[in-house]
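2 proteins. here.
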Amino acid sequence: MKTISRRQSIKMLSAFGLAAMVPTQLLSQVLTTSCDVCKKAWNSLGRFNKTRYQFRYIEPVAALPKVFIYGDSISIGYTEYVRASLKGKACVYRLHTNGQSSNEFVERFEKLRHTMFQPFLKAGWNFKWDVIHFNVGLHDLKYLHEKKLNKKEGTQVSTLDLYEKNLRAIIQYLKNTYPKAKLIFATTTPVPEGEPGRVAGDAVTYNAVALKVMREYPEIIVNDLYTFSIPVLKEFANKPGDVHYKPEGSRLQGIEVANKIANAINITPVECPSAEVITAKFKEYESKR
């Protein structure tokens, strides 16, 4: 995807008599090259990309840092609040689907890379990630029986040993593929009593393994979303025994994630709108799809 230089931007705006109307420090934000090829490729990645607000195509802005969120449905819930908190400060993207367990991480990340970026996609994205905020765990510790949550009859998706092995492979993949990106690992959010496919307390055990691995990589920032989310889940659980959150819970998590990202790249978040405002945007967008 071809970018426009600052000098070219000024010339183009001058040609249309607009240069005096736009502050020069905003020129590179105002002029962003649209990429129809990229949007088409993005929409081909998954069934949610054309219909769900969190998965809509985000046009890159050359002057802004590029942030990527990899995670499960908890991250899907807070993605839009991260975007709102970093509006005008960073371009925030997320994985095109649910991240699932650590077993799928590299494959899903590679699918995104090969679908959206040059040289795999001609005229595709050519920027580098400034921040990658990632989490796996909630789908590793779940129990499945016939592909359904069932902790009584099911088998756990990833043992602790496999989870540790996968985390090490994930870190090596990220460091080798995106060597300049700041990495932020988010601890797995709490599992409440009564969850049908997960055991309360397992998040603590899996996080202990994750933190042991992260201590070997002090350059990776740890976002202790588990501790942050304990009171949030208590007050804003979607329903009893559910690992998911009501909109206000996701909003609080999104603000926390945005703060961690902002600190990593020295930007200042903006005030996040209310959950009602964001929910209204969801409904408006999705009602047209």
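next one coming up
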Amino acid sequence: MSNDAAQGKRIPYIRLRNIKKSFGHVIALDGIDLDVYPGEVMALVGDNGAGKSTLIKIISGVLNPDEGELSLNGKTFKHLTPSRAIELGISTVYQDLALVDCLDVASNIFLGREPLKACFFVDKKRMNRESEELLRRLKVSIPSVTTPVEFLSGGQRQGVAVARSINLQGRMIIFDEPTAAMGVSESARVLELIRSLGDEGFAVLVISHNLHHVFTIADRICVIRNGRLVKDFRTENTNPDQVVGFITGSNRYSGEYTEESITAWR
């Protein structure tokens, strides 16, 4: 039995310890320790160049860390590959969404995993039916699952990307600036979708520069600055001014980040 279980603590979906990454002489990540739990929305915030994108690329297997390790479901990895990350339930929804505009909604949701029927034909009826069920569960409203995604709004496209992540058996979903370039009403629908994923038990990690949106959906807010995780807030115990202070460095930081400080919010 793990120490977390023995102490009656929640088990993180993913645990990062001492993650370091450099590009030449530039230190992108300098010993990141981070836990992400099922059933919570965690926001990762920081200035441009703080290391946020590098960190999610390591979690999703796009980049390999120079040092440190990741633990998922009791297994420890020095690094992941994109395919292995997906197998382990980690899905990333990037800003560009990686949707195929000329294909319809159902085809995008099942892209690369199309079900087959007799004679190796794609089972389009099953794709449509299961896509409709999944979008209904996520409360994503679209004209039809046979509509090409190029005709969908930004919020609807986000919903399709999330549906595809869940269809890949994703249990941790990472969002990179999910409301970028969206209007107020579209952003509200996307934020509601993200919050509902946390309520359903998914582990959700969101990168966003919009602190208003972060405070709307996040259970925790982690601040990364100059490649180091400098603060881990419970959202209910902080305010935007405090968060901005740690992002900019105007708040004092001792430079120490311990196991106790990681778990203190629980």
